[in-house]
Give the backbone structure.
Amino acid sequence: MQTNQLLLLFCTVLLLLGLVAFFVGRAKAARVRASGAVMYAQPDQYAWFAVLSTAGPAVLVGALGSLLLLLLGADIPPMYLLAASLVVAAAGLAVGVAQVKPHFHARQAIERVIRWVLTGAAMISIFTTFGILFSIISEALRFFQMHSFWEFITGTTWNPGASFLAAAGRGDGSGAQFGSVPLFAGTFMITAIALLVAVPIGLLSAIYMSEYAPQRVRTIAKPVLEVLAGIPTVVYGFFAAITVAPIIVNIAGFLGLDASYNNAVAPGIVMGIMIIPFISSLSDDVINSVPDSMRQGSLALGMTKGETIRDVVIPAALPGIISAALLGMSRALGETMIVVMAAGMRPNLTANPLEDMTTVTVRIVASLTGDQEFESAETLSAFALGLVLFVVTLTLNLVSVLMIRRFREKYRVNNL
Amino acid sequence: MSHSFDEISQQLKRRHRKSARLKWISMGALGLAGLFLVLFFADMLSKGLPAFQQAYINTEVRYTEEASRDGRQAFDQDLIPLISRTVVRVIPLQLRNNPEMIGTSEQRWMLATSEVDQYLKGHRNRLSDEEKAEIDERVAAGQVDLRFNKTFFGSGDSKIAENAGILSAVVGTIMTMIVTLLISFPIGVMTAIYLEEFAPDNRFTQLIEININNLAAIPSILFGLLGLAIFINFFGVPRSSPLAGGMTLALMTLPVIIIATRTALRSVPDSIRHAAFGVGCSRWQVVRDHVLPLAMPGIMTGSIIGLAQAMGETAPLIIVGMVAFIPDVSASFTQAATVMPAQIFTWSGEPEQAFVEKTAGGILVLLSVLISLNAFAVVLRKKFERRW
């Protein structure tokens, strides 16, 4: 039988058993109550307990069994597993119904089960982080067995060459070089351009919205800015490649410069537009949290409004603003679609943003699409790059969180 | 050193001018951000709207005996290069299925090639001068025209530009979103309930909280790596399937739903909980019967916004292989499928000019879905929002 047929059978039988448990449990509880005994819980709660004790262990056994099947390759025929879990279900049904006694706290038992289920749900986010870490690290380690870590970090040539042939048993793949410096240079170049666009515009918009704008403008401008963050990145990528890149090439040509259609400026600018709202909304919150007493003190000393903002409000809000910029930077580093569509594919170590250059995320996508042998060094290199990306963005996020926390403690702001 | 009054008032003027300048500059920055948005939408509309129209040629189709072997025989010879291969190809099939049609003829609007389409829309094309003259003549006679593009909304992907449509991507998106929502909504809401209503304030709870905030900030492409290594390589979920894509996106959407649900739960005042505890409810009964119903509008709003975010996500889906070429609409969770953003990505890589317009058209469809979802979320919030 097919797996999904087995699953269907399992679910159907379990559902039927559950229904039986519910009605038998309730009938028994009603009978006990009718006999005049004082019960600790309502009949429905006994019924639900019976359902839980029927389904819970059975699902657990089924899930554990299939996990064992998958993990250890243990040779349990699926039919046996099905039978085992259904036997457990039947046993659970018997126990559940037997527990319908006046002195049994059915409601508290249910409560305990629910607490466990909720804890389990909360654990999934932890598993996700571990899953990401585990999957990236284990594959990256395999990569570092083939190519030295030092070469990966300091090498200036990225040339996977024919490494996929080596994995298929042909050639030795000795020509392959995995020096990630050009990739990181490209990534940081594009990120720097993005921040050059996003930080001034985002910060100044935040200053306008929090210090100058009338309430009406604020209520309109804030959601409009948020729209910029809601546009899918694939759309920005198309915009960068089709509209912005030719404009950059034309402007460069007008200035007598030679620009590639895959230059780093176009994705940089568009990425900057994308992260404006991240920077402006966080800066806006931070500036709003600077206590008014500081503004009043400054104005009372005869400072103009502009001077107050420049010399008092902004320095006070600086940790929050830096934290916003770091968050924006981490977004820009991990951004994929804009660079995949608008930046180049050629690893190129250069300081000229008008040339085409590639980024870490572009390389990850390029080495994982198409028909690739999963064992090849090129495919595994994607995970090594992913590991570095993970570490860098994690660090940026943590630093950003710490800075905002320091700001919060300094001014005792609670809503940040 | 003492200053005269004049000097001081001069200085003061300068300072006030400088102060005013900051106001104008900051206003300009906001204006610039708004201008970007306007330019962006104008650009997308001007590029994408033409995709909803397609060139058709009105001509006589002769269902002759020869046409049932070679579809091209049904048309005037000079029209053949202008009519889409896809409609020419189906004619023999059509005649084989309906033999009684042989010997008849009819006047029909036939789909033209994308070259004709691009010529009519004034874009770059590969037509010869004679062909252009031929088209101009027929346009004047009302036999060539731009009409509503049914193919774009009614068919799947195709390598032939005029035959490419977005339907298979729309179906793929719906199926992927079903998987995403089925996984992330219950788990997200349960996690939030645990953290807000049940969890003791200890190290473990703090760990979960930090972890969730961190997950929300991890680059989406890393979720793709997780999906590839764990779901596909380890658990053997079929590559490119809505199941694999939906599971990957579910993990990505989880933090969004958790954070939104927590905010919604926190906004329910404690007096409600106290009252429910006071009449003897257990903790779960308080949550199920009192807190959750009151927090539901907020939870729904957050989930819709999270779903819209997942719907526009491309990078992790490329990693799990959802950029497949899907010409047919398939409604299976385990077969290869594509989604709207992935379809946009695929089309943007096609070299033909006609696909630029298709890409922008697909973008308009995606954006309108996302905007309606977000608008729905806002309406929901406005309608059910309660101030305590």
Summary: Residues 89 and 320 of chain B are 35 Å apart (CA to CA). The longest helix of chain B spans residues 5-48. Chain B touches chain A through 87 residues (CB under 8 Å). The two ends of chain B are 61 Å apart (CA to CA).
